[in-house]
Specification:
Layout lengths: L5 H24 L5 H35 L4 H8 L10 H17 L3 H9 L9 H21 L3 H22 L13 H12 L4 H10 L3 H17 L3 H14 L4 H16 L1
């Protein structure tokens, strides 16, 4: 995380050098000082500095993410967060995380081609552990599938969903080799319900309601709510659908879900 915030990284390096210099000076000037004790203290101090600077970097990152997921300022988020794409990051997981968040931001604005491109351009490297590689591919494929579903591209969405389900199956097989407490759950429910709606014109409103309620952040709530409103309409529950659509427009008028909800309301009014 420090690699994303050069200011925090420089702060860590500067304070670390200062700490080493101080300890070295103490050992040189005070012959009675126990080297082992001071070296241990220096190591503990360096660890403390690393934790402190890393926590500060994480707080900055959370503030940036909050701008997208809670404040729904996708345009501002993309403008400021895109700088992380140009930074040299050694961790593939961190590099993927940056692209996933940017992909979500582009998708929230209806810029689906850009949302897909930022992930398709990511070079997936084979890791020593199969599970790590599979997890990377699962995360990318899930987003690509959702983008295709949002564009209502049934053919590509189905292709991505088939791949996603295959990845989930392999990941779940790996989880069975672990103790129960360490097993992870990989959900494809939202993707499956969206695909079902595209193919059949209906979806399970209870399953989509669980998706909405299970999201703590505003952006996933808004995007899932749009599909829930469609499911309500397919069930003939116009009252709940309109209530939900108005809520989406109120929360995210500048985002794709808000614009799509406004258009749906307009069409419903025309049918009245």
């Amino acid at each position: 995380m420090l690699a994303l915030y050069p200011k925090r990284l420089r702060q860590f390096i500067l304070l670390s050098v200062l700490l080493v210099v101080v300890i070295a000076a103490i050992l040189v000037l005070n012959r009675a000082a126990n080297p082992a004790v001071w070296i241990l203290m220096g190591f503990i101090g360096l660890c403390g500095l690393l934790v402190s600077c890393s926590n500060a970097a994480m707080k900055e990152h959370q503030a940036e993410l909050s701008r997208l997921y809670d404040q729904l300022d996708a345009e501002g988020f993309i403008r400021d967060y895109s700088v992380h794409l140009t930074q040299k990051v050694l961790s593939q997981d961190t590099a993927l995380m940056v692209r996933m968040h940017l992909s979500n931001a582009y998708a929230s604005l209806g810029r689906f081609e850009e949302a897909e491109k930022v992930l398709l351009d990511f070079p997936v490297k084979e890791k020593k552990k199969e599970e790590a590689t599979l997890f990377t591919r699962f995360a990318i494929t899930s987003n690509l599938c959702y983008c295709a579903e949002q564009k209502q591209d049934r053919e590509r969405a189905q292709r991505y969903l088939d791949e996603l389900l295959a990845l989930r199956k392999r990941l779940e097989e790996i989880q069975l080799t672990k103790p129960q407490s360490k097993r992870m759950v990989f959900s494809t429910e939202l993707n499956e319900q969206c695909m079902r709606y595209l193919k059949e014109g209906k979806a399970d409103s209870k399953a989509l309601t669980a998706q909405v309620k299970g999201s703590r952040q505003q952006l996933p709530k808004v995007t899932s709510s749009l599909w829930l409103a469609r499911a309500y309409l397919s069930e003939g529950n116009r009252e709940e659908a309109e209530k939900l659509l108005r809520r989406i427009v109120e929360l995210a008028p500048a985002l794709y879900p808000g614009k799509a909800a406004a258009q749906m309301l307009k069409e419903l009014e025309a049918q009245a």
